[in-house]
Amino acid sequence: MMKFNLISFVLCFSIVSLNIVAAQKKTINEKIDSVFRLMTLEEKIGQLNQYNDDWRATGPTTVDNDKVNQIRKGQVGSLLNSLGTERIKSWQNIAMESRLKIPLLFGQDVVHGYKTTFPIPLAEAASWDLEAMELSARIAAIEASAAGINWTFAPMVDITRDPRWGRVMEGAGEDTYLGSKIAYTRIKGFQGKKLGELNSLMACAKHFAAYGAAIGGRDYNSVDMSDRMLWETYLPPFKTAVDAGVATFMNAFNDINGVPATGNKYLQRDILKGKWAFKGFVVSDWGSIGEMVNHGNVKNDYEAALSAITAGSDMDMESRNYKNNLAKLVKDKKIPIALIDDAVKRILKKKFELGLFDDPFRYCNAEREQAALNNPDHPKVARAIAAKSIVLLKNQDQLLPLSKNTKTIAFIGPLVKSLRQNKGFWDVDVPGVDSNFIVSQWEGLQNKISGNTTLLYAKGCDIEGNNTEGFTEAVEIAKQSDVVILSIGERRDMSGEAKSRSNINIPGVQEDLLKVLLATGKPVVVLINAGRPLVFTTVNDAHAILYTWWLGSEAGNAIADVLFGDYNPSAKLPITFPLSVGQIPIYYNHFNTGRPAKNDNNHNYNSSYTDLSIYPKYEFGFGLSYTTFEYSDIHLSKKKMKINEKIEVSLTIANTGKYNGEEIVQLYIRDKVGSIIRPVKELKDFTKIKLNAGESKPIKFYIDKEKISFYNQKLQWQAEPGEFELMIGASSSDIRLRGEFELIR
Ligand code: BGC
Hints:
By secondary structure, the protein is an alpha/beta fold. Among the domains are: about 5-35, no CATH class; about 245-350, no CATH class; about 375-585, Rossmann fold; about 630-745, Immunoglobulin-like. It is built from 22 helices and 26 strands. Strands 11-16-15-14-12-13 form a six-stranded mixed β-sheet, sandwiched between helices. A five-stranded parallel β-sheet has the order 4-3-2-1-10. Strands 18-26-25-20-21 form a five-stranded mixed β-sheet. It is globular and about 75 Å long. It starts with a helix and ends with a strand. About 50% of the residues are buried. It binds beta-D-glucopyranose (BGC). Beta-D-glucopyranose (BGC) binds near residues 58 and 285.
């Protein structure tokens, strides 16, 4: 009896556990199907519908008192802009009252941090430090996911060559190679080991595609570009995003060559979901489905929904056009139900991968939220990457770093004591957290100086306007000081979405203030705070210039670290700084033209301006250090390569100055003759190397077919036999070593 019982128990137990294992082994498609087959058409359409909650509308929105009811009826798939576990939990609770209890996704623009604010993306890109950028995205994900969010609308991987465009602050700058590396890094950082880990966020590659090429730098404007330009310059970071396993894509507001991106079948179905086999889902940009009516591409909302779903837009952010029209489109036989089914399955898949079906509240643990938001390591990381993002543009007579024994410092300017400004455009108002949770520049300096230093302050002027009343006081304290630090620039909301500007000079009377300070004869260090490359005039005469962008919550400490040499600046510009707006678009990897200008003194029927230099103020890849680096001993393992071979390039970098430091060594290639003309140089590799004063190290690069391929006239990616020039330098103009090689058949 005893024996029988035991056997039956063992048998029974094994059957049960086999069942569990079988259940666990259900493939993701089986899991999706287990829900999908129960869904009505209305519930399916609901999954494609995303609403704004109540925070920061970046476009027109409908105050929808019926939102709760719609969620309860399973008519909403996702919310954006819900902040904090408490609020998110309450929405999810309502979703759990729906017939099929399909959990909501919670999306948010976690662009440069959640509670801990990191430098704006363009600033971080200046660090060229992929590890640091991955860590900053990781921490943003750790904080946001602990606060209930499971999807960030980042990274923006749009290439741009136009600093008038306000969203230049949100990307990685002008270069496709650097931009692709950064896209990969940020996606890995946000998504972590894999979706479904509690500290992972779904990333979103946006805005597909070519949004950064808006004509005239005016946000939301049309884009007109050749296929070659699209494939060569604007698409690669998106392709890299797919390779990095990005969970979602967002399409874009702009039309491209006359077709709105949101209704663009070529982009979304043929390229993204076809050629690139992207398995995630595509969300529209805010209201962009409805906006196709304004574009003049469709007659009404009904046609807009038809165009978007046909083109491959899976989720409708805020336009309500899917909700209002898809059922009718099916009924009218304008679209096969298969289009909706595919979109729904893509979205359900992500909900399964995130573990939301197992536990819809798994990202909503208030204790975990508190622990993540108060992790003392996060500000330390933010401080380190902020310091790595500061670009030293000028350092006359080695004014910097300042001595910690400086007796009196005048710290002047409208941005010295500001708090929120340092956070940049896409900061998040985290519930329960003071939005001024930030180290101001004033506080940063105070933290740094010793008891022997006196720090004087005057505001001097406002960021905008022409009031010069504060100049006298500023000059007064400058005269009493050994050195002046002047902090000027933009307001944080002067660059960002819908913040395009035709005048990108330093606003107001800030440069006039600098002029009167320079007239005192005191050495002046200028800090420029901005979300974009600004154009400056008097600033050129300052003794030292640090481009500090918007550095986030640890801005003040990071700036002080650089000013006093606790961090030796290493950043290099990820975008060209124009001399004047008239040069825009200006970028380093241009074509040579048939009549290249050789210098600014000769305008004899060559490609130049008769009234303006052809050279930028600061070139792509430029940035100084407190130390100096010498490049030597270039050696190419061979001078001729076949298509599947590699050339090893070795060289030595030496730190020849007094300070330990880091150098970003850049490798550029020029294909001398191409069936499609090749740029005068293209970044194809880089490395960031740390060297103590006096130290030198060998480094190696490899040249393979990837680095010399391009899209030919038939848009095939291939390398053409011929001669190539190799340039290795400290910037795109400061080429220190050269070599040549040939691709042979
Ligand atoms: C922006 C997107 C953003 C979305 C949600 C839009 O206006 O273009 O980049 O993710 O709003 O805030």
